[in-house]
Design goal:
The chain is 18% helix and 31% strand. Strands 5, 6, 7, 8, 9, 10, 17 and 22 form an 8-stranded mixed beta sheet that branches. Strands 11-12-15-14-13-16 form a 6-stranded antiparallel barrel. The chain is of the alpha+beta class. The chain is globular and about 85 Å long.
């Protein structure tokens, strides 16, 4: 949101888009401004195999996935041409989706300096576009099947996200383990290194490792990725606040947790107290009751109906179940090999749209409104699941960070 000395919404008509336009030169200028502000936010997209938009080819984009050849261990016979090997090709398709947003500005806000106002709003919409489309990519590639859960400081190995706590931190040993998993799958590298996208809260813990090599120590001999902060065990680390955080929202409007109201013994019906909850407000969410993670089928103001039976003592804590133990934040750290996933080429499907005052005809008879916005077509898909390893861990900030 853009902050002015007064409330911009007092001068704006919500969700009203108008017709008209600018000169080609001005469109180009604002378009470049938007894209330049979007680029720093496209952290996840920078490692994707890009695909041109299928112009005139429907609403889906298609990637080709080539198989590998078996070793040719049979010696050749002199003068005899062997049969040769065919190549297996599979296809991965993804439905294209369009995203966008805009802001309407009145003449009372604009007064005489429309270009300055439009430029400021374009800057912010550019950043918003980058964050939006990068999040679409992040959410897709977070669904990979190769997952490693971080052990705690004593070496205890969890088997699920709901067991993780702030003590299950990212370590150098865990980095080496993830890199080894990629090596064993013969995942291609980015110029000899794998890449990991991590949150600053995880980077804080990892920087304590004695083998950590900060990016400034090798920046002179290697071009850095956007957001690159350092290297460890052959993995280059890229830091972004948009790295995935798993953490459930508060269960009640006035309390993060709830409490079991009366002991429950092997039952899917769980009475609760300790907070104000509207009927079915928790339906579809996950909770942790006792040591069991379960999905809420429905709820009243005083009872949950779960998708499985649980056992818990009276006053046992009921926590949000989307994150770690006791509802703490868990971080999804993506270790990537080259070519692991694909996206469409954003330079082809994005557009900035500026409507100056006076361009709307009878829809704006007093020339009171201008607008600036963006729209973009995007899709992302995992191409080689074996080239992605997601390490889920806690951090020193697991009790503070919120889901994203």
């Amino acid at each position: 949101m853009i902050h002015y000395p007064y409330d911009i919404q007092l001068f704006a008509e919500s969700n009203v888009q108008t017709t008209g336009g600018l000169t080609a030169e001005m469109k180009t200028y604002y378009g470049m401004e938007l894209l330049e502000n979007a680029k720093p936010q496209l952290v996840h997209n920078q490692f994707a195999a890009t695909k041109p938009l299928p112009v005139g080819g429907g609403k889906t984009v298609e990637w080709r996935k080539f198989g590998s050849f078996d070793k040719a261990l049979t010696p050749l016979t002199e003068g005899v041409t062997p049969d040769g090997s065919g190549i297996s090709v599979s296809y991965i398709t993804k439905e294209l989706a369009q995203y966008g947003d805009y802001t309407t500005v009145s003449d009372l806000l604009d007064l005489t300096a429309i270009d300055d106002v439009v430029l400021e709003i374009t800057d912010r919409h550019g950043a918003n576009m980058g964050l939006t489309l990068d999040t679409v990519t992040r959410n897709e590639i977070q669904q990979g099947n190769q997952v490693i859960y971080a052990p705690d400081g004593s070496g205890n190995q969890p088997t699920s996200r709901s067991e993780l706590t702030a003590d299950h931190k990212m370590t150098g040993e865990l980095v080496a383990k993830a890199a080894t998993a990629l090596k064993k799958m013969n995942a291609p590298t980015f110029d000899g290194r794998y890449v990991c996208i991590i949150h600053p809260s995880v980077a804080f813990d990892l920087r304590q490792d004695e083998g950590w090599l900060a990016a400034h120590q090798y920046a002179a001999v290697r071009e850095l990725f956007s957001g690159e902060i350092g290297e460890l065990h052959g993995v280059r680390f890229v830091e972004t606040t948009e790295a995935k955080i798993f953490r459930g929202e508060d269960l009640a409007s006035d309390s993060r947790n709830l409490a079991v109201n009366g002991a429950v013994n092997n039952s899917a019906a769980v009475p609760f107290d300790g907070g104000t909850v509207a009927a079915n407000a928790l339906a579809g969410r996950y909770v942790i009751v006792g040591n069991t993670r379960a999905r809420v089928v429905s709820n009243t103001a005083s009872a949950l109906t779960l998708d499985r039976s649980v056992t818990a003592a009276d006053n046992a804590v009921i926590c949000p179940g989307e994150g770690g133990k006791d509802g703490c934040a868990v971080y999804g750290c993506l270790f990537l090999g080259k070519g692991a996933y694909g996206t469409v080429d954003l330079s082809e499907g994005t557009e900035v749209i500026v409507k100056p005052r006076g361009s709307s005809g009878t829809a704006d008879p007093l020339d009171q409104r201008s607008s600036v916005g963006w729209k973009g077509i995007h899709a992302a898909a995992i191409l080689y699941d074996e080239y992605i390893v997601r390490v889920e861990c806690g951090s020193s900030y697991s009790d503070q960070d919120l889901a994203n």
